[in-house]
Input
Amino acid sequence: MALSIIESCVNCYACEPLCPSQAISLSTSSAGQHFLIDGNKCTECDGDYADPQCAAICPIEGAILNAAGEAINPSGSLTGIPPFKMAQAMAEIQAR
Amino acid sequence: MELKVLGQDNAAPQGGCSSGTCGSSEDGMGHLPDQVRQKVHNHPCYSEEAHHFYARMHVAVAPACNIQCHYCNRKYDCANESRPGVVSELLSPDQAAKKVLAVASEIPQMTVLGVAGPGDPLANPERTFATFREIYAKAPDIKLCLSTNGLALPDHVDEIEALKVDHVTITINCVDPEVGAKIYPWVFWNNRRIKGAKGAKILIERQQKGLEMLIERGILVKVNSVLIPGVNDEHLKEVSRIVKAKGAFLHNVMPLIAEAEHGTFYGVMGQRGPSKQELSDLQDACAGDMNMMRHCRQCRADAVGLLGEDRGQEFTLDKIEAMDIDYQAAMTKRANVHAGIEAHRDALRAEKELAEMQETLLAPIGTPPARIAVTTKGGGVINEHFGHAKEFLVYEASPEGIRFIGPRKVENAYCVGPDVCPDGAEKGTVLDAILDSLSDCSAVVSAKVGIEPWSQLEAAGITPNGAYAMDLIEDAVKGMYGDLVDQGWSAKDLHVQAAG
Output
């Protein structure tokens, strides 16, 4: 039972001080330096908070996964940008 | 995270002004109390005049944020972009302090250090205040300021006050949660992510409370608002009214920056920014309520230099490491440079005041005064012929203006009737009496002056004039004085005349 942070993390430091288990640290993965969760320490904030704190403040959709490997904040859930709209805008920009 | 550079030229510190608001020496601070003016006198962001002379810098020590705004994308790390919330290099408090000292040594015009992001300074209180503490200890001559969304502000007012941070900017885009819901998709509050109007309501309450607390403690508060057409444009007038009533000293309405490339909600969804006209109209509408700031360049959160320029690339970490900084020497240099700037500003101000004064002067300073008699039948205009006047009104004109000296009555008008002028000896006597009563005057202005008295007046050193017929007396006197000055008239000694 542990969450994980993947390489789309932008190193904003917001999650790190919130973690009640000190499970989050700036580390180096194969993708470069970003925050990682120590799976041995992570409790998913069970018993401390109603919501896992890292996932509750993280501004990057898809950067934090639950134990099943699913994004806790899926695309569009934080910015309000519908995924199709974002895809459309990105396709337009790339076509320039 | 409120300021942005428009001109990105890494030019010399003479400033990168390109906007139409530049070039004015008005600082727009006339309405402020002296103590506030003193505080903002050399702050480039708050005093339009100061921004031509003094530089600011932002250090990017605050990466975390506790809210999401629809005009912001937290994937901020891009060296090519110049807008709020964007930085190239995140600094630790130690690195930031070192950078500040390096910049303060290299750019002695620097007076202000701000923490503006790239997240929210008060969502990173340890990093922000550690930076301020170090600079406060090592470089007490540098003003500290910070810019916040306000959510955490009430919790940190004590520390802000203790570190003598006397300028705080709060970005307030709305006072209505329904409007807020269209701007802020969520806030992180009490360990939960709260979405929609409920989250916006918390943010608004905290902003207003923080504003009130800062004002209570005498800390200057500027309010920033992002103008988002169709979302908060009309609403900002109310925001302006409220924040002024609570004591904010400046309201800075900035245009939304939204491009699809930025990946922000507004950018991707095609929300347009305001036109220049819309921005300026709204600033005008809010200006009735309070002072507006029109020279803002919306700098990025790691900008360095005068407004309108960014010399950040000269002060990257590796370059700072290689610099050998003698801060004591730099402080002395800064003090000298600032004294030079102040002397220059004083001279400019004096020059401007002189020019303004000269604009309203009737003649160059030092020009002797002249007395000018006018004839009138009433109505405040020059409407009496010289020959019909039994009374002359005497005015004294000097470079500073005109004043009424008094009426001069004569026994007989030069002409005894509308069409009857005296003859011979009698005529001479009447005119002599008039000339005598006007002996201190350099001119007499009438609706009309006949040929005979004209030459007699001239011979007596009194310039006759009929060119101001039907003009207001005051305008005629001023005009006549100008004519005398232009003609190089020989001034009369009014003291002797007055005594005589």
In short: Residues 324 and 434 of chain B are 86 Å apart (CA to CA). Residues 1-27, 77-83 of chain B have pLDDT under 50 and may be disordered.
